[in-house]
Amino acid sequence: MQCDFTDTMCEPQFSEWGRLAEANRETLREITSSIGTVTLKSVRSAVIEESLTFTSEMIKLAVSEGLEAERLIPAQHLKRWQLAGENGIEESTVYVSGHQPVIYHSGIVYKTRLLAKAGAQPGSIAINVAVDSDEEDAGMFYYPVSSGSSAGVDSETVAAGGGVIASQKIRSKDEIAEAIKRIASSDAEGKHSARTAKLLAALELYKKFAGQNAAVANSIVRRIIDGHNSYLEVPITRLMHRPEVQSALLALLGDPREWVRQFNDKLAGFRSANRIRNPADPFPPLAVQPSEVELPFWVLNGGVREPLYYGGSLQEDIWGAADGKVVPRAILITSFLRLFAGDLFIHGTGGQKYDAFTDYFLVNAMKIKPPVFAVATASRRLFEEERRRYEEEKASRQRFRNLLYHPEKFIAPGD
Fold first, then answer.
1. Among the listed ranges 115-129, 310-324, 353-367, which one has the minimum average pLDDT value?
2. Structural contact between residues 308 and 295, judged by C-beta atoms closer than 8 angstroms
3. Which backbone phi and psi does 353 adopt, to 5 degrees?
4. What is the Cα–Cα distance from 116 to 125, expressed in whole angstroms?
5. Which residues contact 302 (CB under 8 A, 6 or more apart)?
6. Residues 104, 112: contact at Cβ < 8 Å?
7. Which pLDDT tens digit goes with each residue over 330-348?
8. Are 172 and 366 in contact (CB under 8 A)?
C-alpha cells in the first residue's frame, strides 16, 4: 500500500541502525551479566520463541478465514527466523519496537515499516511487541466527512468491550455492516472516494474476525493492507507466560521497597531538573504505605486492571497470589525490552519523551549505562487539497496586507 508521508523523522538515520545495534550488544552483555542470575541468551531466546509461536497462531487464524499466509509475513523470513530460534540466536541482530495494538496512525505505521525493513536484512530478527495491557479503544478510527465546502472528521470503532485491550473483541458482522453504511453515506458527494473505498475494504476484512480478539484482528488487517510485514509479533501479556521473562523482571526489580524508593526519589529529581509541574509526567509516583508498596505491575482481571501491591514475598505476591494476569508497567516495560529483548529498540516520539526518564533512572538508580535507542515517526495530512488551498489563501491575504501597510516594498527603485 502506498502512503505519502510528510515530515518524516528517523534518528539516527536507518543506515546507522546496524552499527548501533552491534555496539549495544556488547553493552548489553556487560549489563545483563550483573543483573541477577538470568542470562541474556535465555531471556532473548524465550522472547523469540514466544514471538514465533504467537505469529504462527495469528497466521493460522488468518488462513482459516481464507487469507493467504504470504500476505501476513514473507515465508522466507519466517523460515529464517524459525531456523535461528532452533539453532541459537547468538549471531542474530534483534530489533524491537512496541506500541498499543490499536489501529495505527501514520507515525506508528512509518516506525513499523522501518522495523520491517530492519527485519528483512540477512541475519536480523524484528519483533513488534503489542502492549495490550493498556486501557483504550483498540478499534477506534477516524475518517473524512464533507458537506458542501466544509470538511471534517468523524469516528467509528470495530471493537467492543472497552477496558484493557487484551479483553476487547471485534464487533459483530451486523454492527460492522451498519458502520460501513454510515461511512459510505458520509461521502455522498464522492470527495474522498479513494480513501473511503480503502476504508470500506478494511472493514470488510474486519467482518471476517467478528468476535475475535481485537488486538489480533488489528495486526492481521494491518499486515494485509500495509504489506510491509518482515517482523514477528507478540503481546506483552503472552511474554509474561515465560518464566525466563518473569525472572528477568524480578532481577530488574531487585529489592522492591528499595526500587520503589529510588523510583519516587529519581522521579522527583527528574521533574525538578526539567521544570515539570505535572505530577503524572512522565509517570505518577508509586504509592508507599506502612505495610505495603505499589509495584510497577498491573494485575489484569477481565477488562479491568489494578495496581499490584507488595507486602512480603515478591515471588508469591506477583506470580502466585495475584488473581489474574500480571504485566509490567511504567519504565519496567521498556527497561526489559531494551536490556533483554533486543539489540536496538525503536521508539516513537512519545516513547522518546518518557524514556528520557528511563535513562535517567537506569544511570542514577541502577548505575547502568543504558543502550541507545532509535526514534522514528511521520505525519500524513488527511485533507491535503484543502490544506493547499488554505495555504494559498493565507499567502494571498499576507500579500494584500503587505501591499496595504507596506506599499514601499512593491515600488521599484526610481519609480
1. 310-324
2. yes
3. -65, -50
4. 9
5. 163, 164, 167
6. yes
7. 799 999 999 999 999 999 9
8. no
Q: How far apart (Å, rounded) are the C-alpha atoms in residues 229 and 31?
A: 31
* The predicted structure's pLDDT at residue 373: 96
Query: Can you tell me the distance from the alpha carbon of 26 to that of 108, in angstroms, rounded to the nearest whole number?
Result: 29
Report the largest interatomic distance among the alpha carbons of the chain, rounded to a whole angstrom. 90
Q: How many CB atoms lie within 10 A of CB 149?
A: 6
| Cell triple for 180 | 460501513
Q: What is the Cα–Cα distance from 103 to 205, expressed in whole angstroms?
A: 13
Instruction: Give the whole-angstrom CA distance, residue 153 versus residue 140.
Output: 13
Dig out the grid coordinates for 31 from the structure. 549489563
